[in-house]
Amino acid sequence: MLAARYTAPVRQSLRGATFARSWTPCTAQTASRFYASGSQDKVAKFKGQKGSDGKYLVSLIEGDGIGPEISQSVKDIFSAAGAPIKWEPVDVTPQLRDGKTVIPQESIDSITRNYVALKGPLATPIGKGHVSLNLTLRRTFNLFANVRPCKSIQGYKTPYDGVDTVLIRENTEGEYSGIEHVVVDGVVQSIKLITRQASERVLRFAFQYAEDIGKPKVRAVHKATIMKMSDGLFLRTAREVAKDFPNVEFDSEVLDNSCLKMVTDPTPYNDKVLVMPNLYGDILSDMCAGLIGGLGLTPSGNIGDECSIFEAVHGSAPDIAGKGLANPTALLLSSIMMLQHMGLYEHANKIQSAIFAVLAEGKTITGDLGGKAKTHEYAEAVIKKL
Q1: Where in this chain does the record put each Isopropylmalate dehydrogenase-like domain (predicted)?
Q2: What is the DSSP string of 241-255?
Q3: Does 300 have pLDDT greater than 90?
Q4: Which of 14, 99, 210, 232 could share a disulfide with 228, CB 3.0–4.6 Å?
């Protein structure tokens, strides 16, 4: 009886679903620290062109809370470094249209036109019927892969030294598909949607990413031992895709084993790119961020076939907004990922080296890193290192 009640919503959801068949977003790399990489044959390589002023137009979502402060640090440092970037501010304040959360059309047009955006932290309005703004952006632009490098930073001591792994999270389906309904009063069902098309797309990206940044291994993280059909499909697809990449070693690991091993000793994961379905990636990437000092030091990129959005994944911290206490490192490192994606390696390397020099020195760092510097003082220290 129960089975009959929930198969219909599943069929209806699948009837309305459409999935892109193209793969392979373009990303980029630097000599000093790899975040992402690109090649001429990648479908989603950056398509933007310089304007008549010799600069690329980039959509900038400053965000909420501390967002404007840390965004200003990025703008000041880019200007001092001579990066050929011209910012186009966009507002993604959500709107409810026909019962759905959407962002303003002019903001969609800006990001679509510029092919790339940098995003500060966003706060989703509570109690107003809005879904997560971050989720809305991913769905709007079909940002199918979330890339989260986790690498120890010299000068900031954590319980673990030498962490250097990469997590790639499928970004469009899984438990975050939003397919939920009430079966009977007191019983709610949430559908975990896994498709071969979306799985293959993110898995191919993971193998190509591993080749590009010189990681010899890809590991799929799963729970196919329990979810034999859904995670089983993801794992089977991974094994099939692996055959197309003979130079990359492939294996798999159950999620809970990965968590246990990584918090015991993360260094065996340094030669690997970890790829996984949506929910696992959300949890595991934040756990790995904790290994290197937290979300304030962790860059992130959401990659799509047409455009990509690079973001700070920490919260908007409204309690310290306007006080000059915010740490801009995560957004800065995400902006470096963006420059690499755009092929601006020289500027990425220059800014990155200056950031790491300031962090290693430890004299002009923000309070969350153990220092006493204000946000603008940190940015000024980075500018001096340029």
Answers
A1: 57-382
A2: HHTT-TTSEEEEEEH
A3: yes
A4: 232
